[in-house]
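Justification of computing resources. Each target in the renewal requires a structure prediction run like the one illustrated here; the chain below, 152 residues long, is used simply to show the kind of job we budget for.
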Amino acid sequence: MSKSVNALLPELESYIKEHEKTDISVSQKSIDWQLDHSLKVINAVCKVTPQSDPSDFRPKFNFMGFILLSLGWFPRGKAKAPKAVVTDKTSEYELILQLKEAREGLKKFEQIQPKQFFEHPLFGHLNKKKTKQFLYTHTYHHLKIIREISKA
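Resulting structure tokens:
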């Protein structure tokens, strides 16, 4: 896959200075929430995926997952983020630390085996390739929201 979540990190970083900005006509959540959530997801996935046992990988076709990941698009307002990847308020300093952790985690992620996996609550087991697709699509989804809030 040519699209890499690594390529999105510099743009995410560029919005840290605007982290307190919000526009409820775009989203109920501010830029800091969008950044924090995106980085928390990257960091959580990069932490759990290398711990998975490839022999436990059980691919299961999920039509919705196939379509959304193939399109590289998630609809807005349809999913609820798990509590583990949500906070109400995040400081600029915390966002910078999370960004650093994401860069390090993504480097380590590249070393995992192809059948190591991330278990997504809707899409099921995602192998390395599909996990990379998910991370890109998810981060890009939130980046589009951030761009709109920033323009307001």
